[in-house]
């Protein structure tokens, strides 16, 4: 649960919530506040019934952040992280290779350790189309098992992966809904046009 510039937003457990906006809209800053990397100057953030300002260290124990600079998510379960990176680098026979690594490094006892909430800040930035699609598969496999908050500039990515989408403009959360909701609300023909309409105040 988070209040972003007066809008109260509750993200459900197991939901994949995409946060969109043009450059400078405030997406990365919001992710940093939600993940405890920086504290908000106003407003409230509550995660798993804990207050971000009072319980920041407890909250950090259940979070993982994959920043723009890398597609690595080191605090997924060990196995999911291996699958994640195998997908990114398009490793053939990935299940066999993963099993070999598990045995080689004796990882059996820690395979299922992971956080409850994962922040992905433009995780497919710089990936080619094939690597991006492979990463989408991994993210889709995590849906429902872990709460994911994703930022992206790719409209297709947000529409394909997310349960709900929030659109930011000038540091404010201006609208929230499914891609279908936002298309219907703006009376546009596709999600890209809906995003542009909302992000620019209705000016297509």
Keywords for this structure?
8 helices, about 200 residues, globular, alpha/beta
In oligomeric terms, what are we looking at?
A: single chain
- With helices defined by DSSP (H or I, 4 residues minimum), what is the helix count? 8
Would you tell me the structural class of the helices and strands? alpha/beta
List low-confidence stretches: none
Strand content: 15-25%
Count the beta strands: 10
Rg over CA atoms, rounded to whole Å, is: 18 Å
Q: Which outline best applies?
A: globular
Q: Strand order across the biggest sheet? A: 6-7-8-3-9-10
Mean pLDDT: 80
The profile of the biggest β sheet is: 6 strands, mixed
Percentage of residues in helical conformation: 25-40%
What is the rounded distance between the termini? 31 Å
Order of helices and strands: EEEHEEHEHHEHEHEEHH
Structure overview:
This protein is an alpha/beta fold. Helix content is 36%, strand content 21%. It contains 8 helices and 10 strands. The strands form 3 sheets. Strands 6-7-8-3-9-10 form a 6-stranded mixed sheet, sandwiched between helices. It has a two-stranded antiparallel sheet with strand order 1-2. Helix 3 (78-88) crosses helix 4 (94-104), helix 3 (78-88) packs antiparallel against helix 5 (129-142) and helix 7 (179-186) packs across helix 8 (191-199). The protein starts with a strand and ends in a 5-residue tail after the last helix. The model has no long low-confidence stretch (mean pLDDT 80).
